[in-house]
Write a structure and sequence with these properties.
The chain has 721 residues and is an alpha+beta fold. 33% of the residues lie in helices and 17% in strands. It is built from 18 helices and 22 strands. The strands form four sheets. The chain has a six-stranded antiparallel beta barrel with strand order 13-14-17-16-15-18. The longest helix is centred in the C-terminal third of the chain and has 73 residues, at 648-720. Mean pLDDT is 76; it is low at 1-8, 14-50, 71-75, 84-120, 168-176, 218-230 and 561-571.
C-alpha cells in the first residue's frame, strides 16, 4: 500500500497476516523504524542510523521477501490482487494519512477493514469492470446472436462449437508454479517439482523403515536387488493384519530352514506335504471291504476328533425340504449324512413351548423349522446335516427329505406328549360324582389329586380322592360346578414323557456288492431265465414269484434265493424301513379304528311334558298369572257348525281375491325359481373361489412361516455368539 505523508513523501506499508505461524508480528509501520539514514530524516527526527543498521535493514527485508515467496502457494490471491478489505479501504487510508500525519500511524490498526456490507458489495479488483451500453442492444438481431448461449437456444450448435474449440493440453498450474525472477532484488526462484519431492520423500521413508527393521526386527530389512532401496511393505491397518503378517514371516523363515534340511529329516520333522504320494496301512478292516472293492469308485480318507467317537442324544434344528413331496412322520427312520458320518436313526420331532417344555408333534411343520432329538454319534455344534428316507438311486422323485443343524447335546431335557384321560360317571349325587375308567389303580388317583377335569358339555370339576367300590379299581370321587348327567364324558389333560428310541445303524455301503457285479449277476439271471425284471405286478406266472429280491423288483424263479457275486444280505444297504414301506410291500392297508372315524352325529330332539298346575294353586293365583288354556271340546262351536251363504257382491269380491292371490303365488314361484338358479350358479362358482382362497391362504402361511423361521434362526445365531 502506498501512503502520502508530510513533505509529499511516498511511503510503502507492507501488511502481513498470520499464516500457520510462518509470518508473525507486525509489518513495516513507518519509515522511521527502518530508515536508510538519509539527511532529511536526520534533520527532522534527530536520529542517525549507522551502516550496520542499514545492512540489518536490508538483511531483514530479504528474509521477509523470502518468507513471502515461500508461502505463495497458499496466499497467492492476496499477493497478486490484495485483500478485499485492504482494497476497499485504500481511499479512506490515504485521506486520513494526509490529514493526521505520521504521528498518528502508531495508533491505527494494521489491516483496517470495512463493514460486511461494504466488503461484499465491493467490486472484484481482479476483473475488468465492463460498462454496458443499453442502446446498443435495442435491435432484435443482437439478442438473436447470443440466444444459443442460454438454455432457450440451440444446444446442438453449442456442442459442435465446443468440439471445434482447440483444447489446451498443458496444465493450468504450469504458469502458477513455474520459474520466475524477482525484478527488484534480481533473485531467481525455481518452481516446485512435485514428482521429484514425492520420490525423495519415499526414499527417505524407506530408509527410515529399513533402519527401524534392522534395529528391532530379527529378520532384518529386505532390499530390492537392483536399486538397493528397501522394499516398502504395507503397514498393518489392524491387530489382525499385524498378527497375520507376523505368522506369514514365521512361516517363511521355517519353510526356508526346512527346505535346507535332508529330505528324510524334513519328513520326520514336518511330515508329508500336500500333493505327495503316500502309502497308508490300516488294521482291523472288515473282510467285505476287500472282497467288494471297486477300483473305479474313489475313497475319501478322513479323521474324527476324540469327542466324536461317543454316541448319545443330539438335538437338531430340522426342516423338511421344500421339494420333498410329503411331510415327515414322527419316529419314521431317517438316514442322516453329517460330516464324515452317515447313519440311520429314529428322530422324535418336538417344539419348545413358551414355558420351556419340549412338546412332541406327530408330523413336521409344513413351512417352518422344528426340533428333532436323535440318538447317534456326537458331532460338533453348528454342523450341517442332510436327511434321506432311502438311498435307492433309481428313485425318480427328490431324495433329500430334510436339512438341519446340530444345536446341542442336552441329555437332561425331557420330551413330553399331551395325553387326554377319559372316564364316565358311575354314580351321581348332586354336584359330586364317582368317575370310573379314568385310572387303573388307587395309586394313580392319588397322583392326580387336585387335577382339573371337564365334561364335554363344558362343566368343570376337580379330582378329590380315590374311593373304594366293591369289584372296581381306580374309581375317583370328583366334584363339579353343576350336576352332570350319566351320559356325559369326563376327561382331563395331562403330560407324559416320551422316550427317544436308542437306535443307531451305521451305513457302510462300501462293504456291499459293487453295482457292476449286481448288473452282471442280473444279466446272467436273465440269460438263465431265473429273473424277469418288472416294475409292476402283471399277473401270476407259473414257476415264478413276484417280489423285491437281490436283483430288484420282478419275477424270480421259485426256489432261487442267491445270485453270483453275493447274498441277499449284501445286495442292498441294510436299513430299517418305514411302516408305510412295509405295508406297501406286503400289500397291507392301514388299520381302521372305528372310534377314530368321523361319523355324522344325530341328536334326538328332547320332548318335555306339558306343565301341570294344580287346581288349588290356580284358584289362589291372581287372574293375570292363571293359565289361559281352554279345555278340549267334544263338540264344535256354533261358529264352526253354522253355514255362511254369501251374497252376489261377496262372491265377486271373493273371486277377485282368489285371482289376485293366484297371480301373487305365480310371481312368488317365478322368484323362487330364479333364486334357485342363482344359488346353483353360486354353488358352481364356490369351489373355484374356495380353491383360490385356499391357495392364497397357503402362500400367506408359507410366507409367515418363512419369516418366523428366519427370525428364530437369527435369534439362535445371536445366542450362539
Amino acid at each position: 500500500q502506498l501512503e502520502e505523508g508530510k513533505g509529499s513523501r511516498i511511503r510503502r506499508r507492507a501488511v502481513f497476516t498470520e499464516d500457520h505461524d510462518q509470518v508473525k508480528g507486525r509489518a513495516f509501520e513507518s519509515d522511521s523504524d527502518y530508515s536508510d539514514g538519509s539527511e532529511d530524516e536526520m534533520e527532522q527526527g534527530g536520529s542517525f542510523l549507522s551502516a550496520e543498521a542499514g545492512a540489518q535493514w536490508k538483511e531483514r527485508m530479504g528474509k521477509n521477501i523470502a518468507t513471502i515467496f515461500s508461502t505463495r502457494a497458499s496466499d497467492i490471491m492476496n499477493l497478486v490482487y490484495g485483500s478485499s478489505g485492504a482494497n476497499a479501504s485504500d481511499e479512506s487510508d490515504s485521506e486520513s494519512d494526509s490529514e493526521d500525519g505520521d504521528d498518528l500511524d502508531f495508533f491505527k490498526p494494521v489491516g483496517a477493514q470495512g463493514t460486511l456490507s461494504t466488503l461484499y458489495e465491493s467490486d472484484d479488483c481482479s476483473k475488468y469492470r465492463v460498462k454496458l451500453d443499453e442502446d446498443a442492444w435495442r435491435e432484435d438481431g443482437d439478442f438473436e446472436s447470443i440466444r444459443n448461449r442460454f438454455v432457450t437456444g440451440d444446444w446442438e450448435a453449442g456442442n459442435e462449437r465446443g468440439e471445434l474449440r482447440p483444447q489446451d493440453d498443458s496444465g493450468s498450474d504450469s504458469e502458477l508454479y513455474g520459474d520466475f525472477e524477482d525484478l527488484e532484488s534480481g533473485e531467481k526462484f525455481e518452481g516446485e517439482n512435485e514428482d521429484k519431492e514425492e520420490s525423495e520423500l519415499a526414499i527417505r521413508k524407506a530408509a527410515k523403515k529399513a533402519a527401524f527393521d534392522e534395529d528391532y526386527d530379527a529378520s532384518g530389512p529386505t532390499t530390492d536387488g537392483e536399486a538397493g532401496v528397501p522394499e516398502e511393505k504395507e503397514d498393518p491397518t489392524s491387530y489382525f493384519d499385524m498378527i497375520k503378517q507376523d505368522m506369514n514371516e514365521k512361516y517363511s523363515r521355517a519353510r526356508a530352514e526346512l527346505d535346507a534340511m535332508d529330505p528324510q529329516m524334513r519328513v520326520t520333522m514336518e511330515g508329508y506335504r500336500p500333493g505327495s504320494y503316500v502309502r497308508l496301512r490300516f488294521s482291523g478292516m472288515p473282510y467285505e471291504l476287500v472282497k467288494n472293492f471297486d477300483p473305479t469308485s474313489p475313497l475319501v480318507v478322513g479323521g474324527l476328533l476324540n469327542n466324536e467317537h461317543a454316541v448319545g442324544l443330539m438335538r437338531f434344528r430340522l426342516k423338511r425340504h421344500r421339494w420333498h413331496k410329503k411331510i415327515l412322520k414322527n419316529k419314521d427312520p431317517l438316514i442322516f449324512s453329517m460330516g464324515w458320518r452317515r447313519f440311520q436313526s429314529i428322530p422324535v420331532y418336538n417344539l419348545q413351548d413358551v414355558g420351556g417344555r419340549y412338546r412332541m408333534i406327530k408330523y413336521t411343520p409344513e413351512h417352518m423349522h422344528c426340533l428333532a432329538t436323535v440318538y447317534g454319534p456326537l458331532a460338533p455344534l453348528n454342523t450341517g446335516l442332510v436327511a434321506f428316507q432311502t438311498l435307492d438311486a433309481s428313485q425318480a422323485t427328490w431324495r433329500i427329505s430334510a436339512t438341519g443343524t446340530v444345536l446341542d447335546f442336552d441329555h437332561s431335557s425331557k420330551i413330553m406328549k399331551k395325553l387326554k384321560i377319559v372316564g364316565t360317571p358311575l354314580k351321581i349325587n348332586r354336584n359330586t360324582a364317582f368317575i370310573e375308567g379314568m385310572f387303573n389303580s388307587d395309586l394313580e388317583v392319588a397322583k392326580f389329586e387336585g387335577a382339573g377335569i371337564k365334561t364335554v358339555s363344558g362343566i368343570r370339576g376337580t379330582i378329590k380322592k380315590a374311593c373304594k367300590v366293591p369289584g372296581k379299581k381306580g374309581v375317583a370321587r370328583c366334584t363339579f360346578e353343576d350336576k352332570i348327567l350319566y351320559k356325559d364324558i369326563v376327561f382331563t389333560r395331562s403330560w407324559v414323557q416320551v422316550e427317544v428310541p436308542r437306535f443307531y445303524n451305521q451305513i457302510g455301503e462300501k462293504l456291499l456288492t459293487a453295482p457292476s457285479s449286481l448288473s452282471a449277476a442280473a444279466n446272467a439271471a436273465k440269460e438263465e431265465n431265473t429273473f424277469i425284471p418288472c416294475k409292476a405286478f402283471e399277473g401270476g406266472r407259473e414257476g415264478y414269484v413276484f417280489k423285491t429280491g437281490d436283483l430288484g423288483l420282478g419275477y424270480y424263479l421259485d426256489g432261487s434265493h442267491t445270485v453270483e457275486g453275493g447274498t441277499s444280505d449284501d445286495a442292498s444297504v441294510p436299513i430299517m424301513k418305514t411302516v408305510a414301506q412295509l405295508r406297501r410291500e406286503k400289500s397291507l392297508g392301514a388299520p381302521v379304528n372305528r372310534d377314530s372315524l368321523y361319523t355324522p352325529i344325530e341328536r334326538v330332539k328332547r320332548v318335555f311334558n306339558p306343565l301341570q298346575v294344580p287346581a288349588k294353586l290356580q284358584a289362589a293365583l291372581p287372574y293375570s298369572s292363571k293359565p289361559k288354556l281352554e279345555k278340549k271340546r267334544k263338540r264344535k262351536t256354533l261358529e264352526a257348525r253354522r253355514a255362511v251363504v254369501p251374497s252376489a257382491s261377496e262372491k265377486k269380491a271373493y273371486t277377485l281375491m282368489q285371482q289376485l292371490q293366484t297371480i301373487r303365488n305365480d310371481k312368488a314361484a317365478k322368484k323362487r325359481a330364479k333364486r334357485a338358479e342363482a344359488l346353483e350358479r353360486a354353488a358352481k362358482r364356490k369351489p373355484k373361489e374356495e380353491a383360490w382362497r385356499e391357495e392364497l391362504k397357503k402362500a400367506e402361511r408359507k410366507r409367515r412361516y418363512t419369516l418366523q423361521g428366519q427370525a428364530a434362526k437369527r435369534e439362535q445365531r445371536k445366542l450362539n455368539r
